[in-house]
Design a protein that fits this description.
With about 70 residues, the protein is mainly alpha-helical. It is built from two helices and two strands, in the order ββαα. It has one domain: Erythroid Transcription Factor GATA-1, subunit A (Erythroid Transcription Factor GATA-1, Chain A, 2-Layer Sandwich), CATH 3.30.50.10. Strand 1 and strand 2 form a beta hairpin. The longest helix has 25 residues, at about 30-55. The N and C termini lie far apart (about 75 Å). Bound molecules: zinc ion.
């Protein structure tokens, strides 16, 4: 029985150690962890920019809940 746990690195798909000694788990290395974080942050940054650009055409009119009751 082996106590050494490994899993595929989410970034490069290479076997990475899941031991506590691996500071970058579930990634195999710092590089893969930073790459993954970079992609995540890049996505987060692009979403508001895209919405601000394309949202100009179809802005939903502000709805007042009181108006609907009348
Ligand atoms: Zn990796």
């Amino acid at each position: 029985m082996s106590a050494h746990k490994t899993a595929a690195c989410p970034q490069c798909r290479q076997p990475s150690s899941l031991e506590k000694s691996n500071r970058f788990r579930p990634f195999c290395s710092q590089r893969c962890k930073l790459l993954d974080l970079g992609e995540w942050f890049a996505e987060k940054h692009t979403i508001p920019v895209v919405e601000a650009d394309s949202g100009d055409d179809e802005l939903p009119p502000p709805q007042d809940p009181c108006e609907r009751l009348q």
